[in-house]
Design a protein that fits this description.
It is a single chain. By secondary structure, this protein is an alpha+beta fold. The chain has three domains: about 100 residues, Pleckstrin-homology domain (PH domain)/Phosphotyrosine-binding domain (PTB) (PH-domain like), CATH 2.30.29.30; about 60 residues; about 50 residues, no CATH class. Helices cover about 50% and strands about 20% of the residues. The strands form three sheets. The protein has a four-stranded antiparallel β-sheet with strand order 1-4-5-6. A three-stranded antiparallel β-sheet has the order 7-8-9. Strand 4 and strand 5 form a beta hairpin. The longest helix has 29 residues.
Length: about 230
């Protein structure tokens, strides 16, 4: 079972999923590899310059080699860590909320309910527009930034999906019971579930969330299952 499956509630559906753009990962790894190459060159030059000196009981060449190898291993570890972060961290839109999963070993989850989202802002640099990635900021009802998704793929598509999901949620569709297939073992309990759903739909209609036409259309759809 994927980690995101453990976060979903009953009937909650994933609508959109994104992670940081691959070009972001590649740029970080290339930067670390360039740093690694510079360390090797600097270590070789320093080793040749201090051939006959001793520091802390070690020859200068051995000490420089030890330091260079240590820093190089750290840089390589950082590159692998960036890759694992890219694989595991992601931003997920469901029909009820936006979930951002962070961390590799220790996981942290930031959530924003669709009902509390006030505004969605996107930021793209020229480089981001060229490669189609950018940052999304979600403003909650308290006018605070509730969720920041940095360098995600296709930020405008993600924003569009969030706006559509929020529109459906605000109209009350997020409260409807999931459809039970006719071949499901739980279909025997469908009449009771349909009655409950009809009552919920009637309350949404009375509150003005659903129009009369939408209520009647959904009612006919539910009654056709009996």
């Amino acid at each position: 079972m994927a980690y995101v499956d453990e976060l979903l509630t009953r009937g909650e559906q994933v609508l959109y999923e994104a992670r940081q753009h691959l070009v972001v990962l590649i740029s970080r790894i290339v930067t670390e590899l360039v740093l690694l190459a510079l360390l090797i060159v600097a270590g070789s030059v320093a080793s040749a310059a201090f051939t006959n000196r001793e520091i802390l009981g070690m020859s200068a060449r051995e000490l420089i080699l030890f330091i260079t190898v240590g820093i190089s291993l750290f840089v390589l570890f950082s590159a692998f860590w960036d890759y694992f972060r890219w694989v595991t961290e992601r931003s997920i839109l469901t029909d009820r909320r936006v979930i951002q999963i962070r961390g590799v070993l220790n996981r942290s989850v930031v959530e924003s309910s669709l009902g509390k989202i006030n505004e969605i802002a996107t930021h793209q640099s020229l480089f981001g527009r060229m490669f189609n990635f950018g940052t999304i900021e979600i403003m909650t009802a308290s006018d605070e930034i509730g969720n920041i998704m940095e360098n995600v793929v296709a930020p405008l598509d993600f924003k569009r999906a969030m706006l559509e999901a929020k529109h459906q949620y605000d109209r009350g569709y997020g409260y409807l019971e999931p459809v039970i297939p006719t071949n499901s073992p739980a279909y025997a309990a469908a009449p009771r579930d349909i009655q409950h759903t009809l009552e919920e739909l009637a309350r949404l209609r009375d509150r003005g969330i659903l129009s009369t036409d939408e209520f009647e259309a959904k009612k006919r759809e539910l009654l056709n299952r009996i």
